[in-house]
Design goal:
The longest helix is centred in the N-terminal third of the chain and has 24 residues. About 45% of the residues lie in helices and about 20% in strands. It has about 325 residues and is α/β, with parallel strands linked by helices. Helix 2 links the parallel strand 1 and strand 2. It folds into two domains: about 170 residues, Bordetella uptake gene, domain 1 (D-Maltodextrin-Binding Protein, domain 2, 3-Layer(aba) Sandwich); about 120 residues, D-Maltodextrin-Binding Protein, domain 2 (3-Layer(aba) Sandwich).
Length: about 325
C-alpha cells in the first residue's frame, strides 16, 4: 500500500516538475494566435498588431491564423483541441464568452474550456448608415425608419453578434423596426451597407477610413463617451441617456495550460500593450485602445458583461442551434 502511495506521489511530483520546467523554458518555438474573424475586423487587427509587437519583444515568431465562422465558435473549438502548451492561443472576442453561452444550444461554454490570459483592447461601435439615407443624425435616422414601409434592412456580422444585439438594443430604446440581415462577419456587413443592400449597421471604429472617405456616414457611437477617433460624432446616450455598449478583446489559453505559462504570457502581453508602436498601430486601426487589466479586473469585466448580455438575449427570446 505504501509503495502504491509513494508511486502516485512520485508521478505527481514528476508532473509538477515537468510543468514548471516547461514554463521556465517557454517560449521555445513560434506562437500561433488564432483569430475568429476574417482579416480587416477589429479582433484581427488587434491580433496582428500584437503578433508584430510580441515577435520583436520576445525574439521569436508570433503569427496569426484565421479560423472563421459560427460567431467565434470554430476558432474556439480549434484552440480548445490544440495542445495546452501555450503555443496556440485564442484572440477572444467578448461575444464568445458573454453571448455565445446563452445563445447557442449545442455549443460548449467557452468559459469552461479556456483561461483568460490578458485583456487586449477596447472599442465601441459606430452607427454607420448608407450615405444615400436622408439622415444626418440619430434623431433624423429614427424618424426616417419610422416612416419607411416595409421596414428597411440593417446588416450585422452574424446572428447573435454584438453588431446584431447592439442594434436590437437601439431598436427597443428608439421604438423602431428594422429587418435584420446577418452576414458572416463585419467586413461583409460593411460591404452590404456601402452598396445599399442595408441602410445601416453597427461597425467597429476600424471603419473610420471608410467614414472619412464618405463611403459610410457615421451618426452615433455606442459608448458612454465620444470616440477619440471621431470626436464630432455624438454618442447614442446624448439622444437616449444611459445607452452604453462597448466591446473588448482578450487573449485566452485552453483550460489545461499551466498557470506559470499563462502568467508569463500575461506579463509579455501587458508589456506589449504599453509599446508606443503598438498603441499607434491600434489607434490607426480605428481608434482601438489598449486595455490593460489585472487578472481580477478582467474576470470582473467578463462577469459583468455576462449578466448584461444574458438579460438581452432572454428578452429577445434568441437561441441558435
Amino acid at each position: 500500500m505504501l509503495k502504491k502511495v509513494f508511486r502516485v506521489l512520485l508521478i505527481s511530483i514528476t508532473g509538477i516538475y515537468f510543468f514548471i520546467a516547461h514554463a521556465q523554458q517557454y517560449p521555445e518555438k513560434p506562437i500561433r494566435l488564432v483569430s475568429p474573424i476574417p482579416p480587416g475586423g477589429a479582433p484581427d487587427l488587434v491580433a496582428r498588431a500584437l503578433a508584430a509587437t510580441l515577435t520583436k519583444q520576445m525574439g521569436l515568431s508570433v503569427f496569426v491564423e484565421n479560423k472563421v465562422g459560427s460567431n467565434g465558435n470554430i476558432a474556439a473549438d480549434f484552440v480548445a483541441h490544440a495542445p495546452a502548451d501555450g503555443y496556440t492561443l485564442l484572440i477572444g472576442m467578448d461575444s464568445l464568452f458573454v453571448i455565445n453561452p446563452y445563445l447557442y444550444k449545442k455549443v460548449q461554454d467557452a468559459n469552461k474550456e479556456f483561461k483568460p490570459v490578458a485583456s487586449l483592447a477596447a472599442n465601441q461601435f459606430v452607427l454607420a448608415i448608407n450615405p444615400k439615407v436622408p439622415a444626418s443624425n440619430l434623431k433624423e435616422f429614427v424618424e426616417y425608419v419610422k416612416k419607411t414601409k416595409p421596414a428597411p434592412a440593417y446588416a450585422s456580422g452574424g446572428n447573435g453578434s454584438q453588431h446584431h444585439l447592439t442594434m436590437e438594443m437601439l431598436k427597443a430604446r428608439a421604438g423602431i423596426d428594422l429587418l435584420h440581415i446577418p452576414y458572416k462577419g463585419g467586413v461583409e456587413a460593411t460591404t452590404a451597407t456601402m452598396g445599399g443592400d442595408s441602410v445601416a449597421m453597427f461597425s467597429g471604429t476600424s471603419n473610420a477610413g471608410l467614414i472619412k472617405s464618405g463611403k459610410l456616414k457615421a451618426i452615433a457611437v455606442s459608448g458612454a463617451n465620444r470616440s477619440k477617433e471621431m470626436p464630432d460624432v455624438p454618442t447614442i446616450a446624448e439622444t437616449y441617456p444611459g445607452f452604453d455598449n462597448t466591446i473588448w478583446i482578450g487573449l485566452f489559453a485552453s483550460k489545461d495550460t499551466p498557470e506559470a505559462i499563462i502568467q508569463k504570457m500575461r506579463l509579455e502581453v501587458n508589456k506589449a500593450l504599453k509599446d508606443p508602436a503598438m498603441v499607434e498601430s491600434l489607434n490607426k486601426a480605428g481608434g482601438i485602445e489598449p486595455l490593460i487589466t489585472s487578472s481580477e479586473e478582467f474576470a470582473n469585466l467578463i462577469k459583468k458583461d455576462q449578466n448584461k448580455y444574458s438579460t438581452i438575449i432572454r428578452s429577445l427570446n434568441l437561441q441558435l442551434d
